Amino acid sequence: MQEPTAIPLSLYIHFPWCIRKCPYCDFNSHEARTRIPEREYINALLGDLDHSLADIWGRSIQTIFMGGGTPSLFSPEFMDRLLSQLRARLNFSPNIEISMEANPGTAEQGKFSEFFAVGINRLSIGIQSFDNIQLQRLGRIHNRREAFRAVEIAHAAGFDNLNLDLMFGLPRQANEQALADLQNAIDLEPTHLSHYQLTIEPNTFFYHRPPQTPDDDQLFEMQQQCQTLLADRGYTQYEVSAYAKDNHQCQHNLNYWQFGDYLGLGAGAHSKLSQGQPLQITRQWRVKSPQDYLDKENSQQHLAGDQLLAAADVPLEFMMNALRMVQGFDKRVFAERTGLPLEQIETQIAQAMKANLLEQDEHHLWPSTQGLHFLNELLQYFMP
């Protein structure tokens, strides 16, 4: 058995059902045409975890994130049982952050206080827009009024760690409309905002029938104006699309971006786990189909595959995460999380700096302003 590692460990739990698939969504989500099989799914999750305990034995869980799909479609009783069973099997950090994604639908709003009571202490609400026309274009099932009401109920339920998801660059969206959406979100006083551009992904409805979206010049101007508004209202950008009030950065996502470890449970979930000396990094992925995942309940075959990262691929994997952060990373973290000396990529660092995409001092490396805007170009320097 491997000794516990000092690399932080998070837990991600995927909930693959939603009420309706949005035309821009490329996540592993499936419309719940009948009842959601809560009992069967929790049994499958716990069987998956029991089979995975040897991979994380002795390590503390720093954060939990429940994503989807729509986790808030599940009942508070389900969440209570799930968290109780997790606590019985795992060592929770004393200040553990437990996040759950939620939609603003009326039926879900009524559960917020119960979700808070069972131990979920961070809520992430998928608003996307406050414009009813845009919400219809995006295939969302809520309206502007329900969006405002959901945030009010979340505050009243006790969630003082609250994220709102908001998109810009929407179909036929003008700059003024994007700024109005953002101002509506700010007025609701969330502690965190995820503000990101609508992108057209393969295997989505929008990919096959693309909407008319703003051109690159307008998108750049729109983003700049929105970032100015966020800064003026006290939201500090700490990642490409993440903005937070003081001390309210998402700890779970920070662990991803700092190349920490995470165990993924649920249909289609992914894991990244580090073990041994010299350090070996393994990626895992679970079976994607919800029904197939449920069918594996008694066979403990939830794992669809795994891959040991080749040493040559590790620097790019690290940089794809760490260079998303505005402040970059401590140079010591590179060696701690990759098992490789930073000197191994000195040439690539020098080339990226010469291109004005990367900056450094004695202890830190971070993307320049230009590097943040052209992150894909910056990452090219670290390709194996």
Please describe the structure with a list of short key phrases separated by commas or semicolons.
single chain, 384 residues, alpha/beta, TIM Barrel, Arc Repressor Mutant, subunit A, 2 domains, 9-stranded mixed β-sheet, 3-stranded antiparallel β-sheet, 16 helices
Per-chain topology:
Blueprint: E1 9-15, E2 17-18, E3 30-31, H1 38-56, E4 60-68, H2 76-89, E5 91-102, H3 106-109, H4 112-117, E6 122-128, H5 132-137, H6 144-157, E7 162-168, H7 175-187, E8 192-197, H8 205-208, H9 216-232, E9 236-239, E10 242-244, H10 251-257, E11 261-265, E12 270-275, E13 280-286, H11 290-295, E14 303-308, H12 314-322, E15 329-330, H13 331-338, H14 346-354, E16 358-360, E17 364-367, H15 369-373, H16 375-379
Parallel strand pairs: 1-4, 1-11, 2-3, 4-5, 5-6, 6-7, 7-8
Antiparallel strand pairs: 8-10, 9-10, 12-13, 13-14, 15-17, 16-17
Helix pairs in contact: 1-2, 7-9
Tell me the fraction of residues in β-strands, as a range. 15-25%
CATH class descriptor of the largest domain: Alpha Beta
In angstroms, what is the radius of gyration?
A: 21 Å
Mean pLDDT: 94
Q: Major β-sheet, in short?
A: 9 strands, mixed
The name CATH uses for the topology of the largest domain is TIM Barrel
Shape descriptor reads: globular
* Number of helices, where a helix is a run of at least 4 consecutive DSSP H or I residues: 16
Structural class: alpha/beta
What's the CATH superfamily of the largest domain, by name? Aldolase class I
